[in-house]
């Protein structure tokens, strides 16, 4: 089941798709926005993905 985008995500042009964790981290690392809220949310998500990858011992 895929989640729907939040209103701010839709307005920012985010795309919801399933990718491997390295692609998700790289995409979030490359993201930039003039909207401070979007920047903070993406940085938070990227950090969580990095922590999950590390915790699971994925290379």
Structure description:
This protein is mainly alpha-helical and 59 residues long. Helix content is 61%, strand content 0%. Helix 2 runs antiparallel to helix 3. The termini are far apart.
**Rg from alpha-carbon coordinates:** 12 Å
Mean pLDDT: 90
Tell me the helix content.
Answer: 55-70%
Largest sheet: none
**So how many helices?**
3
Uncertain stretches of 5 or more adjacent residues: none
Strand content: under 5%
N- and C-termini, Cα separation: 27 Å
* Backbone shape: globular
User: What's the count of strands?
Assistant: 0
Helix-strand sequence: HHH
Structural class: mainly alpha
Describe the SSE topology.
Blueprint: H1 7-11, H2 21-30, H3 36-56
Helix pairs in contact: 2-3
Quick synopsis:
With 59 residues, the chain is an all-alpha fold. The chain contains 3 helices and no strands.
